[in-house]
Amino acid sequence: MIYDTQLLAEINTYGNPDLIVTPIVLILIYGLAFGIRSSVTDEVNRVYFIPALTVKIIGALALGFIYQFYYSGGDTFTYHTHGSRPLWEALIETPANGIKAFFYHGTYGAGLWSIAEKIWYWRDSSSFFIIQIATIFDLITFSSYSATAVLFSVLSFIGGWMLYLTFYTSYPKAYRILAYSCLFVPSVIFWGSGILKDTVTLAFVGISTYCVSRLIIDRKISILNVSLLICFILCNFFC
Q: pLDDT tens digits, residue range 158-173?
């Protein structure tokens, strides 16, 4: 795919909004992470919690840098610059049309054409699902690319940590190799942390696996566990 100069001008990954919003988002994320760490870890695996979150965040930001400065574009910007950002702008400027575009993508009804023409994956349902997630995060980050990427990395971390806990519960003595396998594989950190479909898929697989383990192995059957399992299985289907 060839990226013209107009697209390159629009890809302003680390502009002024990012420099303001991203540090605030990072402070909030680390504050929350340190706050809940004791309730989601034990004395053995606690040492991996913050480092695993950190490498995910680094991976998400590194992906943006490399796609911008080396590849001069790519899927991550298609999901954001030509995906969630136009949708976010529509939600801010004309909420009625923005909501309609959010839920009725692929159509060209009244008020949708001006939005649809800016979104490259408008008619691709699985890719638009990633755009919908990014748009929700954009509402928090004011469509800052790097801050939204950080939130994707947090989603990936949640899935990875839940996958780690699933296996750690059954094989506690293998905590080191399990930590590396679930949390610190370099290629997974890079390709599974930023604004990409892989990130969402891996996160939902990890969460779904945890829910299955709770239901079948731990026999902790509850409406919450069943609901989460159904929800994330459906989300994987849409990816």
A: 999 999 999 999 999 9
